[in-house]
Design a protein that fits this description.
Layout: H1 4-24, H2 27-30, E1 32-40, E2 46-54, H3 57-69, H4 71-81, E3 89-94, H5 97-117
Parallel strand pairs: 2-3
Antiparallel strand pairs: 1-2
Helix pairs in contact: 1-4
């Protein structure tokens, strides 16, 4: 388990990177970029930033491309807003866990509908006599 210090640094980086991205990129151009998680190395010299992008395929592609191109700028903004011995080197990774989770929920809803239409177990509570 990560130490309390590393957990606090992760949350701080997550918040500040998200804020820097919000200020630097317009939603119309790159979609809505969300920082899902940040995995920080024990020495805090590097960090993997897990992001998701809500928008069409072109916005997602453009958003990820701009993030990687402007990585140094985001690190610079991070260095100004967060006081650490080292400003971590950032690596952006596309995280599709939210999309996969939504798909699982959609499949479950479809299964529930087909089960109730096929005369399967009803969801009405039975009265005890």
């Amino acid at each position: 388990m990560a130490s309390l210090r590393i957990q606090r640094v992760r949350e701080l980086l997550k918040r500040e990177i998200g804020e820097a991205i919000r200020r630097e990129f317009h939603v119309n151009e790159v979609g809505l970029i969300s920082v899902n998680d940040v995995d920080v190395a024990g020495d805090v010299k590097s960090a993997i930033v897990f992001i998701s992008i809500l928008g069409n395929a072109e916005q997602q592609k453009r958003g990820f491309q701009l993030l990687t191109e402007h990585r140094i700028r985001i690190q610079s903004l991070l260095g100004r807003s967060v006081v650490l011995k080292y400003t971590p080197t950032l690596k952006f990774v596309f995280d599709d866990s939210i999309v996969r989770g939504n798909r699982v929920l959609q499949i479950m809803e479809e299964l529930e509908k087909t089960t109730s239409l096929d005369g399967g177990p009803s969801e009405e509570p039975r009265s005890e006599e």
